[in-house]
Amino acid sequence: MIQVVGWVTLILYSAGRVDMCMDRTSYADSLLPNDPVLSHVLRTLDEHGLPQMSVRPMLGQLLTVLSRGCQRALEIGTYAGYSGICIARGLAPGGRLVSLEQRERHAELAADNFRAARLAEIVDIRIGDALEQLEMLVIEGGEPFDLVFIDADKPRYGLYLETVLPLCREGAWIVCDNVLARDRVLDPDNQNPTPAAMRHFNQSLFHHPRLTSALLPIYDGIALMRVGHASD
């Protein structure tokens, strides 16, 4: 019999012997080499009394993989800069990351962490409501984005997606974190705002005319989308 307790799997044998091993996601995370820059970001959260809500290591690695060679990336939800560092590391020479953060305290901490990572010169942190900032980006124009990462208030994921699509290049990647809402989307009777919104959002991804989508049931759920041609 197998039981999962936290990040550890207990394998219970009939003879009474108990073995302990990592679960799949912990095993995957353990494959990544120690990263002093990202470890520093996690320490700064503890030092500032903030919760450890950064993306998990292998999702950070996925963001680096997807950003490889990109010229322009957008992040909705900066927090302490962990995911932004992962994105910025993969950008092509001359590439830039625009990162939107509502809370000034988080933006200031992220700015310090980008400086510590020697990436501050290629990251533009914008403070304020994300939808308002996205509308400003539409007005400003500029080159389209090659990669978008959304990790912000879950009930507005649908609004973020529709607002950001006109800013995306054909072939761009869009990644959304926490789409399983701590497994609350699994209960159809749970009609609280976040799980209800995420269920609707997840379903919409597979009927959207511009998106080719996949939902990866790892961590708290990752939605991965490729942007197609805009219809006239």
Plain-language structure description:
InterPro entries: Cation-dep_OMT, SAM-dependent_MTases_sf, SAM_O-MeTrfase. It contains 8 helices and 10 strands. With 232 residues, it is of the alpha/beta class. It has 2 domains: 1-31, no CATH class; 34-227, Vaccinia Virus protein VP39 (Rossmann fold, 3-Layer(aba) Sandwich). The chain has a 7-stranded mixed β-sheet, sandwiched between helices. Helix 3 packs parallel to helix 4 and helix 6 (130-140) packs parallel to helix 7. It is globular. Mean pLDDT is 91; it is low at 1-18.
Shape descriptor reads globular
CATH topology of the largest domain: Rossmann fold
Number of helices: 8
What is the helix fraction of residues, given as a range?
Answer: 25-40%
Oligomer: single chain
CATH class of the largest domain: Alpha Beta
Can you give the mean pLDDT?
Answer: 91
Sequence stretches where pLDDT stays below 50 over 5 or more residues = 1-18
How many domains, in number, for the residues? 2
The radius of gyration computed from the alpha-carbon positions, rounded to a whole number of angstroms, is 19 Å
Order of helices and strands: EEEHHHEHEHEHEHEHEE
Strand content: 25-35%
CATH level-4 homologous superfamily of the largest domain: Vaccinia Virus protein VP39
Structural class: alpha/beta
Number of strands: 10
Label the CATH architecture of the largest domain. Answer: 3-Layer(aba) Sandwich
Give the terminus-to-terminus CA distance.
56 Å
How is the largest sheet built, in terms of strand order? 6-5-4-7-8-10-9
Biggest sheet layout: 7 strands, mixed
